[in-house]
Amino acid sequence: MSERVIPLIDQRLVNTVARIPTTPVAPTGLLGDALGRPLRDLRISVTDRCNFRCSYCMPKEIFDKDYAYLPHSSLLSFEEITRVATQFVAHGVQKIRLTGGEPLLRKNLEILIEQLAALRTTEGQPLDITLTTNGSLLKRKAAALKAAGLQRVTVSLDGLDDTIFRAMNDVDFPVADVLEGIAAAQAAGLGPIK
To answer: What is the pTM of this model?
Structure first.
């Protein structure tokens, strides 16, 4: 059996130097991709940590007790995230999705959500603020997240059968606890839940 290498960095782009504009560009409310399509969604990863060890994402063989996660000092502060988000919103972003790892592991995430909820689109409308989670901490945090300004959640749920779910998350976490988290999110008004 031969070993297969999956590159995490496109080696063709290693020597590419980012071009920094010589003069700042004023926000136009228009941000597009290479095909001219407007970019309206921004995904922000708030942590690289997760409390599950799903085989397709963070398998134990790699993400074991010795794995070197980013130190807290290397993560963007909530103020830095808000400053970056403000620039994207000025260029037309209307939706921000918070992700991770598991974003609910980030301490005091409600503070960041409050800061992002205060931002307005170029049309003066509130942002659509969502969060993708494995649901393990959702029961405990749903009401506080809603109070901070979160509108919706997406829950990654690999199966409803408890045996399959425990095998998939590889930390023996019960599916019933995630379902209780979904119920708490629904009761808090975080919806529609995906």
So the answer is: 0.84
